[in-house]
Design brief:
The structure is a single chain. By secondary structure, the protein is an all-alpha fold. Helix content is 35%, strand content 0%. It has a single domain (2-19, 28-104), classed as Orthogonal Bundle (Non-ribosomal Peptide Synthetase Peptidyl Carrier Protein, Chain A), CATH 1.10.1200. The chain has four helices and no strands. α1 crosses α4 (95-104). The longest helix is centred in the middle third of the chain and has 14 residues, at 45-58.
């Protein structure tokens, strides 16, 4: 069963990796274990949360201390359109993290 984890994780990620009018394989974004949900796949918090819910159920991974806010924190809001807000640093959130956690049977990252 461990052997089929990799293609199953990639298949799960592909379902959230954009939809194209003509399902052309060449237009699909290349997924690697370094692919980041936010910067590469451009998932918003809701999409990432849905993907993770499905991941924990499908792969029977204990969610442990997983919090979506760790990777998608609330952004400071300002009514002043001229005030530039500083970006909030966030840790990487990659497909490789899902792979390693699926192999371990629990979420390995805080």
């Amino acid at each position: 069963m461990v052997n089929d984890i990799e293609p199953r994780i990639l298949a799960l990620a592909r379902r959230y990796n954009g939809v194209y009018l003509f399902n052309n394989e060449k237009k699909q974004k290349l997924l690697t274990w370094d692919t980041d949900f936010d910067t590469d796949m451009r998932l918003d918090v809701g999409e990432a949360e849905d993907l993770m819910d499905e991941f924990f159920k499908e792969f029977q991974v204990e969610s442990g201390n997983f919090k979506i806010e760790t990777y998608y924190p609330d952004k400071p809001f300002s009514w002043n359109p001229f005030k530039k807000t500083e970006p909030v640093p966030v840790p990487d959130f990659t497909l490789g993290m899902l792979l390693e956690s699926a192999k371990a049977g629990k979420w390995l990252y805080d």
